[in-house]
Amino acid sequence: MIVFLQNAIGFLIQFLPCVFIIFLPFSQEAYRFSRKKIFVFMTIISVLFAAVFSAVLCLRDMEKYPLHINISNSFMLAAILFMLAAYILLVKETVLKKLLVFFIAMFYGVTVYILVNVMYMIIFPNQTDTTIFPYTDRFLILYSAVTALLLPMLLLIVIRPLKEYIELIEPHNMRREFFIATFSTLLYFAITIYCLTSAGNYGVFHFFLIPMIFLTIDQILIYWLIFRESVRRKLDGERLRTIEIRQMQYEKIVNDMENTRRMRHDMRHHYNSLSDMLNRGKLDEMKDYLSKLIDTTVKRDNEVYCESLTVNGLLQYYIGMARDYNITCEVNAECKELKIEPADLTVLFGNTMENAINSCRKYTGKRHMVIRVGTVQGSLAIEISNSCKEVSLDKRYRSEKGFLPAEAFISGREGGGYGLQSIAHTARKYGGSAMFKFDAEKELFTVRIRLNMHTNEEMTQQ
Fold first, then answer.
1. How far apart are CA 69 and CA 72, in angstroms?
2. Which of 30, 61, 195, 310 qualifies as a cystine partner to 208, CB 3.0-4.6 A?
């Protein structure tokens, strides 16, 4: 029983961190199921693998089949392949992003293995364990020590910033860099596998140890350069988006000024009509005219949706516009004053509502919109659904279901356009996210936005 537990624990210490590493960098929106369920499921599967692995080692006739290293490598390979299959099925992201995170997890596993063997050679020179089991007392202690040292460093230095990078990296704009990284990584793993299969002779492993260390350092540099390049491109893209967002804000101001001029013209017309009715003594006709005018203007403008003056004003404006096009609107807004710039709220609601209205105007059936705004666990949550006949998806996302990022939708069609990029950019500015979904069966397009309700200074301090 002691040997069984020892080998099972050793397997878990070596394998389970890799499982967590490949799932941690992605946001909840990228999972097909809840994060908690996925981690519980993968943990249970890892424990089962470890139990079967240890049981096979303990029950096998070692005198007849003494090559325990082959058993260890075979089970580790089977566990990795299962982890990869589950990873591909459970995470809704582009292939290149998933490959990037998977390679980082594998680098961690290989680095732990190399460090353990280096430490073993230093602490126990000219000695090898003759036991038939792979996780001896010495190796189990070394694996525990290296994992306790390396895993927190990886989570702090790599995984935390990787969460941000994984949302910002656009693989289709970095195909050459990803090709180089993928090719070099596969070559690195091929050399590593060859070394592992030859490790029965420790002299062979000694021979390859120094090249493997240099190759590991080389791979770390390659991925560091990819991250640095992604940050540079991200900053350049954000500068361009900021310029275009400001241009959009300027155009909205111009449009608002034009609408104000139009309203003044309409009001002059109304005043003249009322004055004419009064001069002619048509009081009943004047009352009817005023009643209709109040129904179409004053009541609409005085409708209160929430306590936030900015959000309430934007909802009044765009819901009024939607009703002008005979679009039925269902509104549920519950939020107080927000620590979010009014200009940014204008970009979010302006782009989202205008896209929804334009999509409904092209819809031949019953036009409707559902707007939900509220605060959830310290975040502002916005969900807007509207009638939509079709959208145009990028070919990389056509097989994906559920909520997708802005780049999945091609501009020039319903629900598409640069406006989605502006929404996503503004959401990221507040440490949030924006995801989009088209339901072909229900003919419904949904925008889901989440923003942290903090000022930029508070977010920087955090």
1. 5
2. 195
Identify any residues that bridge with 334 across adjacent strands, giving them in sequence order: 374
445 beta partners: 386, 438
Give the pLDDT of residue 2: 80
Backbone φ and ψ of 298, nearest 5°: -65, -45
Question: Domain span at residue 381?
Answer: 303-461
CATH label of the domain that carries residue 320 = 3.30.565.10
Residues 101-144 have pLDDT tens digits of 888 888 888 888 878 877 887 787 766 554 556 788 888 899 99
Alpha-carbon distance of 244 to 27, in angstroms, equals 27
Task: State the pTM of this model.
Answer: 0.54
Does 258 map to a domain? no
From the CB of residue 24, how many other CB atoms can be counted at a distance below 10 Å? 17
Rg (CA), the chain: 30
The amino acid sitting at 365 is: G
Contacts of 147 by beta carbon, 8 Å cutoff, 6+ apart: 13, 14, 17, 112
Instruction: Write out residues in the chain with pLDDT < 50, as ranges.
Output: 63-67, 130, 200-201, 299, 413-417, 455-462
Tally Cβ neighbours within 10 Å of residue 262. 10
Q: Token digits for 202? A: 């420790």
Query: How open is the CA angle 412-414-417, to the nearest 5 degrees?
Result: 45
Q: Residue holding tokens 């120094």? A: 210
326, part of any domain: yes
Q: Among 219, 242, 265, identify where a domain stops.
A: 242
Pair 456, 361: CB distance under 8 Å: no
Tokens 């202690």 belong to residue: 141
